[in-house]
Design goal:
With 544 residues, the chain is an alpha+beta fold. The chain has 16 helices and 28 strands. Strand 1, helix 1 and strand 2 form a beta-alpha-beta unit. The longest helix is centred in the middle third of the chain and has 25 residues. The chain is globular and about 70 Å long.
């Protein structure tokens, strides 16, 4: 498709890793003119991220790549376990089966394979342009656009866009052009990461676990189909240079039965794990996503997951703003919602890190005693962390103006039936805003203006029935949406495109009020602060 060189792109994405790819794919599928600028000339072909959870599976589904992603991932069949040096369980987290979003609770992959899926899908969009070997060297803010200066092998010159998203990693160039500060919790540990391909087919049980041995804390997890990863904490007497060698990697793998005769090392590298986030993720036409906005230890497997949550939150808001269906200030809620939300992932990652990164034998013994007494139950064995809910933003309000009860929580996805087809809800609706109702009666309260507004933002009306659904209705699963709605005294719920609950209603009038609130908030977003303060439990974690 040809385009005028004088016309600015809707969005320029700096960085084309998984988060940048997801943003390009979601915005491209929504019909927006997107350019992705990646400084490296070819994809990085070695492993990095290895895990995503059920919520991120639903994000892949929303991006239209569900089958392709399933083909390159291994779902976890058992639990994630943390053991002491004697082999006793300290924490056991059930990762088996499907999670609430209709996807496996946990899945493992090799990042080059996942990136190939996402890049191919993004580049297949007629509205998406990808330039590799194209480094952004300068950015200039204007009233209507941002001008990016580029250099390198990929069409060097100038790019203009209405909005620029920095998905360019922890050392983000885009972030350097913003005045935002960074909150750093001072969590620093060096780990040797060793990615391998065992030569034999073997069953690893549990598939993923942590050895909390003060003599050498070690992580043993899947690296995706046919791959295994070991991570070894750097000890105080070791230098990074001494640890980051093939000889050191083989020496540390040898007690695990891994030798050059039965294993190939794909990569060994020392990473410094950190816990930090940027305080403002939007400044005017500049936005940040993924590692450019936050970093965390890998112990909860939430680094890339958090970036994908950024992508879908930002994509649906930019979609509305770019089409003038919502006010630009809607983008301020990206920071307020996601900054507080990501602190749950960071807090959980730090809490788990504080379990394994213990080198003093006496401290390790005290830890073991405390956690074994808690029965290896993560609810009791780990320090408290912030709840996994969105911060202030596009969420229903109570009569006193405070956020309504239970809003900002992730909603489940069940299989439902519609017009002779049974599938996961999003496969039937196409995603976007969803209005779930107990039958069609609550929808009678909506007038033509309400329905026109909902149609304008791409919302789908989903009247649910326990049985005998009419042609326009949806047949609910036996343990699906209706039992949940009825159990809370609700007849309707409005779900956002990122699967989080906007609000619920007890009657048709309440549903109409919810729709009115949503319409008002999209034009005049309510944000009580640039960034909500860190919840107290996270502070407690940081100080322990």
């Amino acid at each position: 498709m040809s385009r005028s060189s004088s016309k600015p792109y809707d969005v320029a994405i700096v960085g084309f890793g998984p988060v940048g790819q997801m943003l390009a794919l979601l915005l491209g599928r929504a019909g927006h003119d997107v350019i992705a600028l990646e400084r490296w000339p070819s994809p990085y072909d070695l492993p990095r991220a290895v895990h995503f959870d059920y919520e991120i599976g639903r994000v892949f589904q929303a991006a239209g790549v569900a089958d392709e992603v399933r083909a390159v991932t291994d779902p976890v069949p058992d639990h994630y376990e943390w053991r002491n040096a004697a082999g006793e369980p300290l924490v056991r987290i059930d990762w088996s089966g499907n999670g609430p979003s209709g996807w496996p609770t946990a899945s493992f992959f090799s990042q080059p394979q996942l990136e190939s899926v996402l890049a191919k899908a993004a580049e297949s969009q007629a509205t998406v342009t990808v330039r590799r070997g194209c480094e952004v060297t300068d950015l200039q803010l204007g009233e209507e656009t941002v001008r990016l200066t580029t250099s390198g092998d990929g069409d060097a010159g100038e790019v203009r866009a209405r909005y620029v998203i920095g998905a360019d990693g922890a050392n983000s160039f885009v972030r350097s052009g913003m005045a935002t500060s960074v909150t750093d919790l001072g969590f620093f540990y060096d780990w040797l990461i060793v990615d391998t391909q065992p030569h034999e087919q073997a069953e690893w049980s549990p598939m993923n676990w942590q050895l909390c041995d003060p003599e050498r804390p070690t992580t043993i997890v899947s690296g995706g189909p046919g791959r295994r990863r070991w991570e070894f904490l750097r000890l105080p007497h070791e230098s990074i240079e001494d640890l980051n060698t093939a000889e050191a990697a083989w020496r540390l793998l040898e007690p695990w039965g891994r030798t050059p005769e039965n294993t190939t090392i794909e990569r060994h590298v020392v990473y410094t794990f950190q816990a930090r986030w940027v305080d403002r993720w939007r400044e005017g036409r500049l936005l940040l996503a993924g590692d450019a906005a936050h970093q965390m230890p890998p112990f909860a497997g939430q680094g890339m997951c958090s970036g994908m949550r950024d992508a879908i939150n930002l994509a649906w808001k930019l979609d509305l703003v770019l089409d003038d269906r919502a006010a630009p200030d809607l983008l301020d809620t990206y920071t307020s919602e996601r900054s507080e939300h990501v602190q749950h992932a960071i807090g959980m990652s730090m809490a788990l890190g504080q379990v394994i990164c213990v080198l003093d034998p006496a401290d390790a013994a005290a830890r073991d005693e405390r956690m074994i007494a808690a029965g290896a139950d993560p609810r009791h064995a780990l320090p408290p962390t912030p709840p996994p809910v969105l911060g202030d933003g596009i969420l229903a309000r109570a009569a006193d103006g405070t956020r309504a009860r239970d809003v900002g929580h992730l909603t489940p996805q069940y299989e439902v039936g519609h017009q002779g087809r049974t599938a996961l809800l999003d496969d039937l609706t196409g995603g976007g805003f969803t209005v779930l109702t107990d039958g069609a009666a609550p929808l009678d309260a909506l007038d033509s203006a309400d329905r026109g507004f909902l149609a304008g933002i791409g919302a789908t009306l989903v009247p649910l029935y326990a049985d005998n659904a009419p042609p326009e209705g949806y047949l609910d699963a036996p343990d699906g949406y209706l039992p949940h709605l009825r159990g809370h005294g609700h007849v309707a719920a409005v779900v956002r495109p990122d699967f989080y609950l906007f609000g619920a209603a007890t009657d048709g009038g309440g549903l109409r009020a919810l729709v009115g609130q949503l319409r008002e908030q999209l034009q005049q977003p309510v944000v009580t602060a640039d960034r909500a303060p860190a919840p107290e439990p996270l502070t407690a974690v940081a100080e322990q």
